[in-house]
Design a protein that fits this description.
This protein is of the alpha+beta class. It has 5 helices and 6 strands.
């Protein structure tokens, strides 16, 4: 099987790297520097900010806690192979997974988003493969 070539341009037809587990409240860490780069309104509405008390308690336990984290939200997929299904995704993601998506804060996205998954890297290819197989199974089940 030939390795799929994926570029940043392919991201707008995918978005699976922006999905998260249903048990998680937040999607990705946000540093103070990230928060300054993100639009103020987005931070106010979609970033969980951890209190100084929480950060101090984490430090006492030897853990490092980020300044905040982007919230996740449930969204019913309006189109594409997962149309009608609700998926938990980053609050910045708009559109339909495996169809057409965009990140509303792409140019100012947190460092974690910039580094976690690079278009075409091993993680990207694995996520795309897994979700495409799942979507194909969903399509067969509906038929």
């Amino acid at each position: 099987m030939a390795r799929e070539k994926v570029t940043g341009a392919d991201c707008v037809s995918c978005g699976v790297c922006c999905l998260g587990p249903s048990s998680q409240r937040a999607f990705c860490d946000v540093s103070e520097e990230d928060a300054k780069r993100l639009p103020r309104r987005f931070v106010r509405l979609h970033v969980l900010q951890f209190s100084a008390f929480d950060q101090a308690a984490a430090a006492i336990e030897g853990r490092v806690m980020p300044w905040g984290a982007i919230k996740q939200r449930w969204q019913e997929q309006p189109a594409g192979p997962l149309k009608g299904y609700e998926l938990k995704m980053c609050a910045a993601l708009e559109g339909s997974i495996l169809n057409k998506v965009r990140c509303s804060v792409y140019d100012s996205r947190p460092t974690t988003c910039r580094e976690a998954v690079v278009p075409g890297d091993r993680t990207c290819l694995r996520l795309r493969q897994d979700y495409k197989q799942a979507a194909a199974g969903v399509s067969r089940d509906r038929a």
